[in-house]
Design goal:
The structure holds two protein chains of two kinds. Chain A contains 18 helices and nine strands. Chain A is mainly α. Chain A is globular and about 105 Å long. Chain B is mainly beta. In chain B, the strands form 15 sheets. Chain B has a 22-stranded antiparallel β-barrel. In chain B, a hairpin with a 4-residue loop joins strand 29 (535-538) and strand 30. The radius of gyration of chain B is 35 Å and the shape is elongated. Classes of the chains: A mainly alpha, B mainly beta. At the A-B interface, helix 1, helix 2, helix 5, helix 10 and strand 6 of A face strand 29, strand 35, strand 36, strand 38 and strand 42 of B.
Chain lengths: 501, 1212
């Protein structure tokens, strides 16, 4: 009996003392993992709320800025597939699949940040400390969804958006290994994006960033606004947002192709173009992408012929463009030095590693074009012309305020040569049309090798013809389904509806 | 001790148990015999019971234990007794008929012997003698009988002495029997005084108790699958790391010596791997306490040769001479008490203890000679053949002046061209005339050099290991102390090891029922190895690469024999490596790693007997390990040279060690290490606490029902720290003053790296367990164990961290059945069965989100900022890796001569951690989750036979055999091509844990280039994508883990001589041959003799599969030639079978005769000569004699040498 009491007594003591302390004991983190404790750590988390992949290769190669550089040039399969409007089967760097994944990864970071912000605040009441990160997180979530929507869903059309399949809208961090998702309609996703944008823009604060060029600073956020509302056809909003970007003389913050850029060597140009010193860059992202290494030299891309056509065509300013365009002797390829390769070795002195390409996500030029387009659609032609003049001032060699000044007549004369008709979901008046065409042509030229053209091709339902050295031309028609990238196989496997093929 | 001790009818078991203790106690008889005062007073009141019941009642009340010949005493005689407060003597005289029986009380043991009534005749004479054990201690209680009349006999007294009267006229043989000892017969001659030495019946004693670390349990009642190995049988003299001693000794345990360097852990697997991506190492337990690893090196990385492998072996700090035995716990029942870390099996080491009695001193000295490797074992061209290949290269335009002079690495031709270019102002001429004659003369010296690199870089070195141990003890305290010194001068010119160990252990009986044990273990290691940087894989080309690899073994294998270490004048001769001068001897002197490890372990054990059934036990241990790894590179090293190589513009452009200012893209690369060398340091620190409380209840009811319950709790806490820093510009020869160019730090930062770092990891573990066992008459035993483990490893979530495991097992001792008991030739027969759940911590730790900090990688320094990223999302479903295991075991013994044990198991692993591809929408494309399953099964078989047994000669044989296979039944991860073709292999659904695949070779083309089939079945040359996830076209080669392993040992004993021959074998795996093919060979590389059969002329492709050395022309016209030759290295042409039979050990031992020992006043002395790892009796021809366990990884990895050891042992 005594024995039994003893044993019960001892075991009870052991159990109680150990159980009391055991959860505390096991609460110790297994390694020096980070913890989110304040707004500062959330701000650090948001460094990764921007997609780390590059959309330029597969979008740029689908545009009419790309041609066939000839058999002697090295061909990379995924680039060739993009050029030939095929579905890209590779899932590595510079592919739609990786971009899909990294956009959702950015969204994940934004959602976790939002989750933590809500946890640290009372509902919608956001403390001052958290305002800036709240704004940025919303902006990031909106941006990543926006980019996905414009690659993996049909272009926005007000009348069908309620039925068109968009992309999944993700607004909370995933907690299980495999979660089911479904595609929302284009309209729903846009509504959410607009809602995030409108909420977020109020809180954006430039003071909160140590390297503002890599975050949604005020200018970048408004620049995003111009692109967003342009897509939706909300012109007034575009103008409103553009005003948030431009203060004073617009041309001051444009790339100085005819000035400072002229004296730079190729390497200098590459590193300057996509650096934070260049004022035109409103938002930058270092992406894991070998585009800086292969974009200029592989078989498909800007060719000497296309470059010649673009730059030698008559322009509204009646001058010569001052871009630095380079070409190869042995192959037909040409390029404009824009991207600098940063190599991140796997280990110190390792032979292999990752190529990083820093790309501008938003630049002052784009905002200027978006503003011009909105002005045109609002029939503010004088404002539009003034916008164009600002642009030409930095692009035309030996620019002369009077000689190169754009006048309306010249726009309608020169740019009506272009036979392809823009066919957006809204109507364009006859007067607006040449202006729109003019903007589209300049934009196409300005953003060679930057992918922006592809979004215009979608928005305006433009056809594209790709010549091939071997075999026939490949034509992308106005409403071609190939303008919409296929949902990655890995997502289709988990029940996401594929796009029409 | 003795958790389950059924009494009563299982007398044999009882007797053995008691006598084991007795035997231990006897050792101190000389000092303590008959001094025990029998003061304990007893009260008994029993009526009409067996005598045995009275004895057991006395045992319960007191510390007395009874020993009596079961067959001779009528224990079932009924009697009554009623005494109060009497001494033992009184009771004994009441109970025993003193005419027939006598008894003696020695210490606390009551030995009852039957008096033999001898017929007295006139012709009888008296024989006297003394019976002793091997150690020379007298044995009391030994029964001495006449062979012809077994009922006639006497017992020895407390001094081991006996007197027996025998008939004078007859030839008489005396039989000496004593339980636990081998029976001995002596034919009486003219002599009338004999000294009889009885030897341990090792087999019986060893098999008696199983020590699981938590409890010691009677083997008969042990339901699990376990194997015990005695250190004295398995100890391989001259091998300091005890982990390697188990090779081939235990069925089901495979030991692969992937590196023979001291401190590097062998790949040990108990019943194969049970996790796909997680840990597959068994758990090491030393004296009941889990031995933690200082660093966690994954099984795939054990063979990497990285410096961290030097501290991967947790047992390297243990002195092999301190080990008493190993107990390998294999199945779920055996490991049940270890709960959730025992999925990979448990190896329990029990170290030696102090024993009561005379102070004993043992000295042991080992002298080991490691033999130099020889070219005859390898397939490498001599310098003449090598030179003819170089001449061919030159003809093909591959060794032209302009290229060679600018190559990163350059041998003879580089030197020749360099001499032609160099103007000697003193002589007023170029060092070498640029004429054909002068050139040929120059080359001739190298053609005939035939350098023996093994001779230059290796020593027939001497390794010494001396150990001293002292064991002593008195009535209430026992001590063991030992110390050892290991001094290895190094097999190569660049390595050496010193290890010192100390062990102090004391066991104290503080009260009658309270015992305290204290021990201190300390070891210090100082080791020097060749300098090495970490290995990196290049997924693009499919190569493993190590910067500045100077591993002497791989250097000897890979360096042309035409290159000479010394020039004509006997001075070091330099060639070119990494654009800088290089000489291996100079390099080994100026680039080395110094490793210092200090390991201190303190342990306390306490046991308190609350009453005769209930015991409380505590164990606590604290361990600290500090290891410092200093990589010292002086300014004279080639590494420092490479940082400074700026010979010309081309070198500048190609030398990646130069600094390129990113902010000024137009600037030329410059050297940023102009002074001094490198001082790279890595520190590892381990702090480990371990506490355990156990309450043990043990009782037998009605002498039939034995019950044993253990209730326990365990706590483990391990903190690890790893810090490192890279110092640049350290001036070893200038007072150690650093002279650092700030730009080298800038360069590191700009490349996205840090120049120092520090990481912590914390392991917290808590467990509660209960185990209950029931045995009916020792015939039927059932055991149920359950354990509840908690760990912090899975992350913050409170739900995931706890896991219950359980196990049920049973045993049927068929031999105990009355009908079977009669069968004399059957010495043992039992059947065991186990079913249970075991678990282990997977490699995932994300039960809540894991955030990491880093510095963002950006183009310019001023654009960088701190960032935080989500390493993995929360997995609320995360749980442990688990496995259901079924084990059926069968033990069988014949004539006490043959012991056979067979175990068959089936393991169903589930919830194993594997990567799974998601839709990507959650933000984490690849996730680690419990999504893989695996089934393993196997059979283990071990047989020990005593083939011959006589007084002078005995021959024992042991054979172990195990076969296993496993299949991954569910795995969503998709490895890429490189993951599968590299020598470590990869995991694929439907395959085993690590399978090796090959790129299918499609023959040589008409140019002699290798071709392969690609995904589409097309024949391609270089278009092999190592990063592709399309793996269906790869050729399956087999598992990299052997399916069949085991060993075969034979031990012959003749008088004082012992001969031991041991072979280990392993079958059923494949190995990838050393990747020796390359598209371009410099004048550095050694080539294999295979190269003689290479493609030379069109048409050769029909007769050979060895590709050509591509000409300049071919190189220019084919892109990816480099990749083609790498693909060849990873093709089916470069795979061999890993099967082998190895003559692991032959040893001959001579024990100095006892009589001689006595004369010179020592207890024992022996001399042993042992050859270890002698040669392979069988291996795949494709290996050309190379060791299939070691295919050459560089870094610090070395194969196991052939070695000879001479051991002296002396005991006082």
């Amino acid at each position: 009996m005594i024995m039994k009491i003893y044993s019960i007594y001892i075991s009870t003591i052991i159990c109680i003392t150990s159980l009391l302390s055991c959860n505390d004991f096991l609460d110790k983190a297994p390694d020096n993992r980070a913890v989110i404790k304040d707004a500062e750590s959330i701000s650090e988390l948001l460094v990764n709320a921007y997609p780390e992949s590059n959309y330029i290769p597969f979008t740029s190669l689908k545009t009419d800025n790309s041609g066939d550089g000839g058999r002697l040039a090295v061909s990379i399969r995924k680039y060739e597939q993009a050029y030939k409007f095929e579905d890209i089967t590779d899932i590595g760097q510079d592919t739609p699949t990786l971009y899909w994944n990294s956009c959702f990864k950015a969204i994940m970071h934004a959602n976790i940040a939002l989750d933590e912000i809500i946890k640290n605040n009372n509902g919608d009441e956001i403390n001052d400390d958290y305002k800036a990160v709240y704004g940025e997180a919303l902006m990031c979530r909106a941006y990543a969804h926006f980019m996905l929507l414009n690659l993996f869903a049909v272009p926005y059309n007000k009348s069908t958006a309620g039925e068109d399949l968009g992309i999944p809208w993700v607004e909370e961090p995933e907690k299980v290994i495999l979660k089911r998702y479904k595609r929302e309609t284009v309209e729903t996703v846009y509504n959410n994006i607009v809602s995030d944008f409108e909420r977020g823009i109020k809180y954006i604060s430039d003071e909160s960033y140590s390297v503002p060029e890599y975050h949604f600073n005020t200018s970048a956020a408004y620049a995003f606004g111009t692109r967003l509302y342009l897509t939706l056809g909300n012109w007034k909003k575009v103008v409103e947002c553009a005003e948030g970007v431009f203060v004073g003389d617009v041309s001051e913050i444009l790339r100085d192709w005819t000035g400072a850029y002229k004296s730079m060597s190729e390497d200098q140009l590459k590193s300057f173009y996509s650096s934070s010193i260049e004022k035109s860059n409103l938002l930058l992202r270092a992406t894991v992408s070998p585009w800086s290494r292969y974009g200029d030299i592989t078989r498909y891309g800007l060719t000497k012929e296309i470059a010649g056509n673009i730059f030698s065509a008559k322009n509204a300013a009646k001058g010569d463009f001052g871009y630095t365009t380079l070409g190869y002797i042995s192959i037909e390829r040409a390029y404009i030095p824009k991207f600098f390769e940063s190599f991140r070795a796997e280990g110190m002195n390792a032979e292999s590693g990752w190529v990083y390409t820093t790309i501008p996500l938003f630049s002052a030029e784009e905002v200027l074009f978006n503003l011009a387009e909105a002005n045109i659609m609002l029939n503010r032609f004088d404002d539009a012309i003034s916008n164009l003049n600002s642009f030409f001032k930095r692009r035309i060699r030996e620019y002369d305020e009077i000689e190169n000044n754009v006048i309306e007549e010249r726009i309608s004369q020169i740019d009506s040569y272009d036979l392809t008709n823009p066919k957006p979901f809204y109507s364009i008046s006859d007067k607006q049309k040449p202006f729109i065409k003019c903007v589209l042509r300049l934009k196409r030229m300005e953003f060679i090798n930057e992918g922006i053209r592809f979004f215009d091709i979608r928005r305006f339902h433009l056809p594209v013809t790709h010549k091939c050295v071997e075999g026939e031309d490949i034509i992308l028609t106005e409403n071609d389904y190939r303008k919409v990238f296929q949902i990655p196989a890995s997502a289709i496997q988990f029940g996401i509806t594929p796009n029409k093929r | 001790m003795g958790t389950l001790c059924p009494r009563g009818k299982i007398k044999k078991a009882l007797k053995i148990m008691k006598l084991t203790t007795l035997f231990t106690l006897m050792l101190c008889m000389q000092l303590h015999a008959s001094v025990y005062s029998q003061q304990t007073r007893l009260s008994l009141k029993l009526s009409n019971v067996d005598i045995s019941r009275i004895f057991s009642e006395i045992e319960k009340q007191s510390d007395y234990a009874f020993t009596y010949p079961v067959n001779e005493i009528s224990v079932d005689k009924k009697m009554s007794i009623d005494v109060k407060n009497v001494l033992i003597d009184e009771i004994m005289s009441t109970c025993l008929n003193e005419v027939l029986y006598s008894y003696s009380v020695i210490d606390k043991h009551v030995i009852i012997t039957k008096k033999h009534l001898l017929k007295v005749t006139t012709e009888e004479r008296e024989i006297t003698g003394v019976v002793k054990d091997k150690e020379g201690y007298p044995l009391p209680g030994v029964s001495v009988t006449l062979k012809d009349a077994p009922t006639v006999g006497v017992s020895t007294d407390v001094n081991g002495k006996f007197i027996i009267k025998i008939a004078n006229d007859k030839k008489v043989t005396l039989v000496f029997t004593f339980i636990g000892m081998k029976t001995k017969e002596i034919t009486v001659g003219k002599k009338s005084n004999y000294i009889v030495i009885l030897e341990n019946d090792a087999e019986i004693l060893d098999e008696v108790v199983i020590s699981t670390g938590y409890q010691r349990i009677d083997r008969k009642l042990f339901t699990g699958s376990a194997a015990k190995v005695d250190a004295k049988d398995t100890k391989v003299d001259g091998v300091a790391d005890v982990g390697r001693m188990l090779e081939g000794r235990v069925a089901g345990v495979s030991v692969q010596n992937v590196s023979g360097t001291f401190g590097a852990a062998p790949k040990i697997r108990v019943r194969g791997a049970s996790s796909i991506y997680g840990d597959t190492k068994p758990l090491w337990v030393v004296d009941g306490v889990v031995l933690e690893d200082v660093v966690d090196v994954s099984p795939d990385d054990l063979s990497s040769g990285d410096a961290v492998t030097l501290i991967s072996s947790s047992v390297a700090g243990i002195n092999a001479d301190d080990i008493e035995n190993f107990q390998i716990l294999k199945d779920a029942s055996a490991t049940a008490l270890y709960g959730a870390r025992a999925m990979n099996g448990v190896i329990v080491i029990t170290t030696k203890k102090g024993k009561k009695g005379k102070t004993k001193i043992n000295l042991s000295s080992e002298f080991t000679m490691k033999m130099k490797p020889s070219y005859s074992d390898y397939d490498i061209m001599n310098s003449q053949d090598q030179m003819s290949v170089l001449m061919e290269l030159q003809k093909k335009g591959l060794l032209n002046h302009a290229d060679v002079i600018r190559n990163q690495n350059g041998g003879i031709f580089y030197k020749m061209y360099n001499n032609i270019n160099t103007y000697d102002a003193k002589k007023g001429a170029f060092v070498l005339e640029n004429t054909e004659n002068a050139r040929n003369n120059f080359l001739r010296r190298y053609e005939t050099a035939n350098t023996d690199w093994f001779g230059v870089l290796f020593n027939n070195s001497l390794q010494q290991n001396h150990s001293l141990s002292i064991s002593s003890g008195s009535e209430n305290a026992r001590y063991y102390a030992s110390t050892s010194v290991l001094d290895d001068k190094g097999w190569t010119v660049a390595d050496k090891v010193n290890r010192y160990t100390v062990k102090l252990k004391g066991d104290f009986d503080i009260l009658k029922n309270l015992t305290l044990g204290l021990q201190v273990n300390a070891s210090v290691r100082k080791q020097v190895v060749p300098g090495t940087f970490g290995r990196a894989s290049n997924n693009v080309t499919g190569e493993f690469k190590r910067e500045f690899d100077i591993n002497p073994f791989s250097y000897a294998l890979n360096t042309s024999r035409a290159i000479t270490p010394y020039d004509e004048n006997g001075k070091l001769e330099y060639f070119r490596m990494n654009y800088a001068p290089f000489n291996i001897i100079n390099e080994l002197n100026n680039n080395k790693i110094e490793l210092n490890v200090i390991d201190l372990n303190l342990q306390a054990d306490l046991s308190y007997k609350i009453n005769s059934h209930l015991e409380y036990k505590f164990a606590g241990a604290v361990r600290f390990v500090r290891s410092t790894n200093e990589h010292k590179v002086t300014r004279f090293s080639n590494v420092a040279g490479a940082y400074r190589a700026t010979d010309d513009a081309i070198v500048e452009d190609h030398n990646k060690y130069l600094y390129r200012n990113k902010e000024k893209p137009n600037e030329r690369p410059i050297s940023v290490l102009n002074n001094g060398g490198l001082y790279n340091r890595q520190d590892n620190y381990l702090e480990n606490y371990y506490f355990r409380n156990i309450v043990n209840f043990n009782n037998t009811y009605d002498e039939t029902h034995s019950v044993n319950v253990i209730l326990g709790q365990e706590l483990r806490s391990t903190d690890r720290q790893n810090s490192w820093s890279n110092g640049y510009g350290y001036q070893y020869d200038k007072g150690g003053i650093p002279f650092t160019d700030y730009r080298i730090v800038k360069q590191i930062l700009e490349n996205g790296f840090a120049y120092y770092g520090n990481g912590y990891s914390y392991d917290r573990f808590l467990a509660f367990f209960i185990s209950s066992a029931y045995s009916y008459l020792g015939k039927y035993t059932v055991n149920i164990t359950s354990r509840y483990d908690g760990s912090n490893k899975l992350g913050k979530s409170k739900s995931a961290r706890w896991l219950p495991t359980w196990n049920i097992s049973g045993k049927w001792n068929i031999k105990e059945e009355p009908s079977v008991q009669e069968i004399n030739w059957l010495s043992n027969l039992s059947l065991r069965g186990t079913y249970g759940l075991t678990a282990s911590m997977g490699p995932s730790t994300n039960s809540s989100v894991i955030y990491r900090n880093s510095v963002s990688f950006r183009q310019a320094e001023y654009e960088k900022e701190s960032q935080m990223y989500v390493q993995s999302l929360e997995n609320s479903e995360l749980t442990w890796e688990k496995q259901y295991e079924t084990n059926i075991g069968f033990d069988f013994g014949l004539f006490n001569r043959i012991n056979l044990s067979i175990d068959a198991y089936h393991r169903r692993g589930f919830d194993l951690i594997a990567a799974i591809r998601t839709s990507g929408i959650g933000g984490d494309f690849w996730k680690y989750g419990n999504y893989a399953d695996m089934i393993s099964k196997g059979v283990e078989f071990s047989i020990n036979t005593r083939n011959v047994l006589s007084d002078d000669f005995s021959w024992d044989t042991g054979f172990t055999f195990s076969i296993r296979e496993n299949e991954i039944t569910n795995l969503k991860s998709k490895p890429n091509v490189f993951d599968l073709v590299r020598s470590e292999g990869g995991a694929v659904q439907g395959g085993s844990v690590r399978d090796l695949y090959s790129i299918p070779f499609a023959g040589l083309n008409e140019q002699g280039l290798p071709t392969f089939y690609n995904e589409e079945g097309e024949i391609v040359i270089g278009d092999v994508n190592f990063q592709s996830n399309d793996i269906d076209y790869l050729k399956f080669e087999g598992s990299i883990d052997p399916k069949l392993t085991g060993g075969f040992s034979n031990r012959f004993k003749y008088k004082n001589w012992d001969l031991n021959v041991f072979c280990s074998y392993s079958f059923g795996n494949v190995v990838r041959l050393y990747p020796s093919f390359s598209s371009s060979y410099s004048d550095w590389n050694a080539m294999s003799k295979d190269m003689k059969n290479r493609w030379v002329l069109p048409g050769d492709e029909k007769v050979t599969n060895i590709p050509t050395i591509p000409s300049d022309h071919i190189m220019d016209n084919n892109t990816n030639i480099n990749r083609a030759y790498n693909a060849y290295n990873y093709s089916d042409q470069r795979v061999a079978k890993g099967d082998f039979i190895r003559l692991k050990e032959v040893s001959i031992n001579y024990n100095l005769p006892k009589s001689l020992c006595k004369k010179i006043n020592i207890a024992n002395a022996s001399l042993k000569l042992q050859g270890t790892n002698l040669f392979l009796l069988y291996s795949d021809k494709k290996l050309n004699g190379q060791d299939p366990e070691f295919i050459g990884a560089g870094g610090v990895a070395m194969p196991i040498p052939h070695q000879y050891t001479l051991t002296f042992k002396l005991g006082f």
